[in-house]
Write a structure and sequence with these properties.
It contains 6 helices and 5 strands. α2 (42-50) runs parallel beside α3. A 5-stranded parallel sheet has the order 2-1-3-4-5. It is of the alpha/beta class. α5 links the parallel β4 and β5 (119-124). Helices cover 39% and strands 19% of the residues.
Length: 145
């Protein structure tokens, strides 16, 4: 397992439980030493990031240095998350790297994601271990033993 500076936690935001399960396994196969948290909606993701709601007393769980965000979800979607995320106090955002994920072939989604200064990469699902490794190595420094 490789440990990275600023990457104690990874957050998967996707309404599809099987996708969250698969992506969690993909991250494990990439040998990233980080706690992976999965949530199925925007509200829960924001609560987790801000220690609110059911996450009020969970300061022992690392908050994300990396967020994988699905665009298309029922109710509030990935764009709604980004609108709310931009409004958060800086202490909650820290240096989180946000990766938008989709199965959509709509080129407008990619264009909108790349315009957003908080989104660093736009990828098509599913994640693969080599994708995760490349992303982590691009945005985080490996900690040597």
């Amino acid at each position: 397992m490789k440990k990275y500076q600023g990457l104690e936690g990874i957050l998967l935001i996707d309404d599809d439980l099987p996708t969250n399960f698969i992506h969690k396994k993909v991250i494990e196969k990439a040998f990233i030493d980080a706690v992976v948290k999965t949530v199925t909606n925007v509200e829960e993701a924001l609560d987790f990031i801000t220690y609110s709601g059911i996450y009020e007393d969970t300061s022992d769980i690392p908050r994300p240095g990396l967020i994988f965000l699905d665009i298309n979800m029922p109710g509030l979607n990935g764009w709604d998350f980004m609108d709310a995320y931009r409004q958060l106090d800086k202490r909650f955002k820290a240096t989180a790297v946000i990766i938008m994920l989709t199965t959509s072939l709509d080129p407008d989604n990619k264009e909108l994601a790349l315009i957003d200064k908080e989104v660093v990469v736009f990828l098509n699902k599913p994640l693969k271990p080599e994708m995760v490794t490349t992303l982590v190595n691009s945005y985080f420094k490996e900690i040597s033993d």
